[in-house]
Amino acid sequence: MKPVSPPALPYAEAYAASLADPAAFWEEQAQQIQWFEPPTEMLTTDAQGLYRWFPGSRLNTSYLALDHHVHFGRGEQVALIYDSPVTNTVSRITYRELLDRTAHFAGGLRQLGVEKGDRVIIYMPNVPEAVVAMLACARLGAVHSVVFGGFAPHELAVRIDDAQPRVIVSASGGMEFDKVIPYKPLLDAAIEKASFKPAHTVILQRPFAQADMQSGRDVDYQKVMQAPQVGCVSVEATDPLYILYTSGTTGKPKGVVRDNGGHAVALKYSMSAIYGMQPGEVFWAASDIGWAVGHSYIVYGPLFQGCTSVLFEGKPVRTPDAGTFWRVVAEHRVQVLFTAPTAIRAIKKEDAEGQLAQHYDLTSLRYLFLAGERCDPATYEWAARTLSVPVIDHWWQTESGWPMLATMVGLSEMPPPRAGSAGHPVPGYDVQILDEAGEPLPPTHTGLVAVRLPLPPGCLPTLWHDDERFRQSYLTTFPGYYLSGDGGFRDAEGYFFIMGRVDDVINVAGHRLSTGEMEELLAAHPAVAECAVLGIACPLRGQRPVGLVVLKDGYTIGEEQLEQELVQLIRDQIGALASFRNALVVKRLPKTRSGKILRKSMRQLADGEAFTMPSTIDDPAILDEIRAVLVRRQVGLAFEKDST
Ligand SMILES: CCC(=O)SCCNC(=O)CCNC(=O)[C@H](O)C(C)(C)COP(=O)(O)OP(=O)(O)OC[C@H]1O[C@@H](n2cnc3c(N)ncnc32)[C@H](O)[C@@H]1OP(=O)(O)O
């Protein structure tokens, strides 16, 4: 197929075309990428009855991200700008250099026994070597699974057991503000805990943290880089590119699978149609490679599009100040910045008037995109005022891998963005608001956000080795729909508003976490008879978890000591990113007469939301007891002085 430029369609036309004939719409987009064997069939269902895009066609993701650009004259363009205020480093890596490094590292992985279909876990901070490792896996047709560096050994162990990696690539350490986080002991502890043992680990030794190496198992990253370069392995479009774990309602995370073909087509489309990016321009997703945003928009999307991507190892504040983001935009002439609302709230908290932005030349910036959690209108307005560019809140999930609702700046006649709204459905996504019975709701009615099947290319085809959980989690509640787990509504003009999760998943600073998992961990403490974890409103992180625990009869322990132990337990088992800081002892938990804990009522109480007493409540006095504890401990927006 000969590549052709996408026509600049009006949004409404593109959207209608994508729903009227999805195969024809995506066949046209598929012509924008370089296949080894182009698709002849667009959409099918597999033996399990699950939708698959571009069956039988062949390509290589690393080729699309690197080789293609080098072959066609982009070799000397900077592919990756590594900006690390925590190590005082700025380095620029061209497409040619990134290809060279990737081909060497792929050769090294192959020497360690990694072949097509094998899994490789990557547990690293935001460093170029992590990007090289991802692209090297793609080059070999191996399946990478990046685990966010903030996760504790238990979480890593669970992922090791599920993915069963031949190799784990890690680093000796990361830097959180000015604190060294030694990764290697965490990795060693995780491997110790896991039942499955990888054959090798590859360790990037960083100057500020030397890791002890285990002879026979651990290999130095630089040694792996000395291997001869290898070329790209041809894979099928439907072969998995990566597994990315995300929290479900239980302790076992869900292994979201991303395939090669649909992913490449969707991300290439999104870079131009949603973000309006042209080859050669600079895109910065200020996130972590461990999240879907990092996969799609630090690594793959910008590279597919021939852009320069910024890889930032720092924080919005204190590295060294709340002007860091603006310094990066100015220094690297960033055209589009993408971050989570929490990052903007953190900056706003330290620089309320946005004065630091005035110290930098931000004229390169065209748009600020926000996602990962709901953006409150105050944060939206502050960002628009401070940056004087359109701010675009958009909505997607790890599962979709790319935006489902947005204001698409690459299409014409797009309704402008609006504070509080995530915009309009992106072509390919037939987004509906359903009631509890699965019937579409009229505008302005809040309900469950669902997407009519088939999902477009790039979305998860299944969960890793678990078709059944995939079906149960997303497809069976409302046949014919993907159920997102988020709630929201559409207004009379077609703008969508996403209000947050409707299940036991919470969103803390853009990190999706399971309250069910936290409850399982708290309940294992010998003092705890029963417990509930609520995701209460937090001015900085959007939400934060709070535990309410009932003590076992006769168990004596000071409330303060118990709280310390439970806080430490969550930190040790899940990680500091959970921001679990309160475990409050209560006499009883409110329940329905059938024994279901009334978490929603307690959350509403803590958040100061008006609510009606559930008619099924066992004993209404219990909510008064809970209120008294929240007041005494000053926990909850309604009762606290400073919740950050
Ligand atoms: C659309 C599809 C998706 O939703 S994909 C997911 C998108 N989500 C994101 O991009 C995440 C956005 N959030 C962030 O980047 C961070 O939360 C920002 C805004 C930068 C703030 O970071 P920070 O100041 O560290 O606060 P936090 O709440 O994230 O962290 C809480 C505690 O965890 C720690 N932590 C964090 N990261 C790491 C890490 N990599 N390694 C070790 N520890 C880590 C933090 O230091 C903090 O610890 P402590 O409680 O202060 O001791």
Structural topology:
Elements: H1 11-20, H2 22-30, E1 43-45, E2 51-53, E3 58-59, H3 61-71, E4 78-84, E5 89-94, H4 95-111, E6 119-123, H5 128-140, E7 143-146, H6 153-163, E8 167-171, E9 173-176, E10 179-182, H7 183-193, E11 200-204, E12 218-220, H8 221-224, E13 235-236, E14 240-246, E15 254-259, H9 260-273, E16 282-285, H10 292-304, E17 308-312, H11 324-332, E18 336-339, H12 341-350, E19 367-370, H13 377-387, E20 391-393, E21 405-406, E22 424-425, E23 430-434, E24 447-452, H14 467-475, E25 481-490, E26 496-501, E27 505-508, E28 511-514, H15 515-523, E29 528-538, E30 542-551, H16 559-573, E31 582-585, H17 599-607, H18 621-633
Parallel strand pairs: 4-17, 6-7, 6-8, 8-11, 11-12, 16-17, 16-18, 18-19, 19-20, 30-31
Antiparallel strand pairs: 1-2, 3-13, 4-5, 9-10, 14-15, 21-22, 23-24, 24-25, 25-26, 27-28, 29-30
Helix pairs in contact: 1-2, 3-4, 3-5, 3-10, 4-5, 6-7, 9-10, 12-13, 17-18
The structure holds propionyl Coenzyme A (1VU).
The site of propionyl Coenzyme A has 27 residues, from strand 9, helix 10 and helix 12.
In terms of per-residue confidence, which ranges show pLDDT below 50 for 5 or more consecutive residues?
A: none
Question: Which outline best applies?
Answer: globular
Q: Give the number of DSSP strands.
A: 31
Largest sheet: 7 strands, mixed
| Spatial arrangement of strands, main beta sheet | 5-4-17-16-18-19-20
Supply the CATH class of the domain at 512-633.
Alpha Beta
Domain AMP-dependent synthetase/ligase: 75-452
InterPro entries: ACAS_N, AMP-bd_C, AMP-bd_C_sf, AMP-binding_CS, AMP-dep_synth/lig_dom, ANL_N_sf
GO molecular function: propionate-CoA ligase activity
Family: Belongs to the ATP-dependent AMP-binding enzyme family.
